[in-house]
Amino acid sequence: MAKSKAASTKTGQTKHPSIIPAKSPQTATSPDRGDQSGNTLRRSKRLQGMPVPTFNPELPVTIQAMPSKTMLSEPGLPFVKVVPDGAVSLSDSGPTLIGATDSDETLGDHAFEETQSSSTKPDISTKPVLNEPDIDTFSEYNGTDNENSDNSDAEQNNDEGNSCPSKKPSRSKQDNLGAALVKSKKRKAATSGGKKTAKTALAPPPKKKQKVNAPTPKRQRKAGNPKTKTAKERFLAASAEDTRPLPWGEPEVWAETRPELCEALPWFRCWQGAGHTHGGFVFGMLLDEDQGERAYMDEHVAITRAGGGIGKNDLGEICQIKDHDSENGRIKAFINNEKEKIPMHLIIGQNNIHCPSRIPHRYCVTPDVHITDHWDEKSNGHVVVKFRFEKTDLNKKSWYAAEGSPEFHVPTNIKALRKECPKCNVTKPQVFMSGWMCLNGKCVSFWTLNDILAPEAQDYNPAFVEERQTFDGFIPPYAMNPELIQPNATHGQAFPATRQCWEGIVCKLCGRCNLRRHWDAWRCRTEGCPFVHKLPMDVIPASSVMGEAGYGFQGHGVAQDKVLEPSINCEVRKHGLYRECVYQLGDGLIITHLNSNNVINSAPGGPDDLFCHLQKEDIGLERLPMKQSVVEQTYSRHFSHNFGMPYKYVVGHDNSTSLADAPDGIKEAVRRMTWAAKRTVADEDFVDFNEVLAIGYFESMKMNVRALFRPPIYVCYHLANRSQYHDDGEISLGPTVASISLGCPARMKWRLKMRYWCGFKDKGRKHYDPNQPILRGCRKPEERRKLNELAKTVSTAELDAAAQVALAFDKGESKTPPAVLELDLRHGDYMVMHGAPMQVYYEHMVTPTDKLRFGLTCRYVKPEMVPEDMRSMGDLTLDPANAYDGDLELYKDHMEKYEAGKVTKRRIASVATQA
């Protein structure tokens, strides 16, 4: 023992109480959990220099100050206890307080000498205890980073000096806490004279070197580049490299994609970010890749930071760049849950490197947890808010506990020290081993020990991590596994088309979260799982979804369109019972709106029958994955199916049905839309349609280019409604587009595209383009005409400077192009767009206003733009004898009845007058 003390003194060790793990010689350390930026921790070689005697649990041993590499003893093993004189002693019964000390001294510099492992019983006087050093606790040292060290090396290094002869404990608890104690900021080793030494001053960080395997420029990138992998490929690759033990059980609820998770769980509608908050409370949180410095997780406890304030530093590394504010609404929501004892749910992502076991799916839900503590700490020079979560039911083993781990026994004699700060009067626990300090970021004593600023490198106090608190709060507001959606009488006949009926569900056989992809039912996407959930879908009459329009018009309809640009010309005429409005947006740019009425709609084979036909017959409607979306695997917010020539818009239709094989209702719609188009386009300019896109909308659905979400009851989506403007400007399309609206009303708007509205080439509006046409509805047309004349005599730079002044936005003026035309599309109405420049200059959007709507749109797809073997899919021969004429015979009959009614009214009036 004297020799050990002398060795410590020789190396210049400062006395400080810490905790040494009671480890078994058979214990192997699991792979490092990594830092909180998502990078894997590099395992360092054992440092040399300080021989420290091991202990025997049967003997009373006193050990001087040790490196702050703290791990906990397993049940059945002796605890390590800190005593006031700064020594470490052992106790079979366990300590009543771990990590509480009156000493606030920081650890000094240490040098270690590497020793060889031995299978023989160690000699207490000579055999040192080699624990992996906490790199940030000490000054810089010389060493080698072994980024790819294998398990055998790790096992050998961690077995050295372990003398406790008890049975092999579980690795999960010790390894996880050990990983949390290693700081994410790792310092590079410096070599001096071939010896491993310690320096008291920190060297400046080395300049970031260019990586040898850096990705090639985008145009040179090869197909096999990792950045081009899909989410599933990245998940499988990461799973293959994960060496953690398998989980003890299986999650009750899980998902493979973020959209599935967010659509199926009402308590987690967070499409981006980690926490779902609403109304001042938090209901769910995702623990995935970035959880901040000192993140920790075991079977019952998780420690993570609040969201926000993350960015890249000068080296391109993701780290904390802004302070957290505890008054922030999202952070306040977590604090409110803690104060009011409201439990919540956690989701473990596959990128979570702190979980004690491998994650079987991309996202897995944990049992209910509650927030026990929150505090502020320092990270990268900034104030960060941290939270400690703990399971509400400690008696039930967590599914994510490591396979083979022992049963957990709730400790009753471990409590962390809690003190009130004399400066701010806020009580906080002792979170770190260095001693109690005020962890209120707004206090003048924040992050100080004995009025001296504490280092950012800190170890967790094991008592704070290991203590367990009996939860006596409320039942979680939402069930972890929601019930299946069932018919609701309050919604009446239209319930199957309500917003609730296209949210996701959790499979009751395998537990997977599933979004509703198919029109007729929910189907579990797990391979081999037969689960299907269907709702009785009775045919909904058009009258029940027409909203304020009621039963429609009996005579000629009154168009409630809005011409928002005065320069747009409008011509109104009639054809039979249709009211026809023709809008001229420019030379050759025409939009026609044909208003239907109740007489036309209710005729045999008319819009009413088409509406019922599309509900009864399975025409293959489904939600398809978006080609471009912020969140991978996001699906469209509408159901669709393509007939005829292949057509790819915002989603890809890889499985089109030929027009010859299309249902009769689709063919009838083509016949009617052909008539409507010919009302707008001259016969010599019209080309028969060869493609039909059928789109079905439930309540709150939209034709979307980006992922859209509306706030359902009690929860709030992360993304609000955004602009849904788009165009049909694919080069493979002809100049004419026709559509028929069936079901609830919809609003269709047109606006100029940004560059044609404002006159600038770029989004930053710095470079004026004098070659752009000055269109109806563009901004400041007179100023642009003057600029176009000026462009003939000045340089480009002078023109841009003049445009910045002439086209400057006034204070409060909107920088978004306004709508120039808005149509009120009702059940049975037709819309026709004609003119190729229409899709170049303008974009449009359609927004249904009620529960159920179908939109059928016809186009002409150029055959030369389609593979030769698919060109026959657009073949459809319409019998001229059965061509639709606008129900002219129906118009004659209606007029005869109308005239007869007027004669009858005159006779009645005449008899009344004579009387």
TrEMBL record:
GO biological process: DNA alkylation repair
Protein name as annotated: Alpha-ketoglutarate-dependent dioxygenase AlkB-like domain-containing protein
Region annotated Disordered, chain positions: 1-58, 85-231
Annotated Low complexity bias: 190-202
Record domain Alpha-ketoglutarate-dependent dioxygenase AlkB-like: where: 630-851
Positions with biased composition (Acidic residues): 147-158
Pfam families the UniProt entry points to: 2OG-FeII_Oxy_2
Superkingdom of origin: Eukaryota
Organism from which the protein derives: Letharia lupina
SUPFAM superfamilies on file: Clavaminate synthase-like
GO molecular function terms attached to this record: broad specificity oxidative DNA demethylase activity; cytosine C-5 DNA demethylase activity; ferrous iron binding
Lineage: Eukaryota, Fungi, Dikarya, Ascomycota, Pezizomycotina
Listed Polar residues bias regions: 1-16, 24-41, 114-123
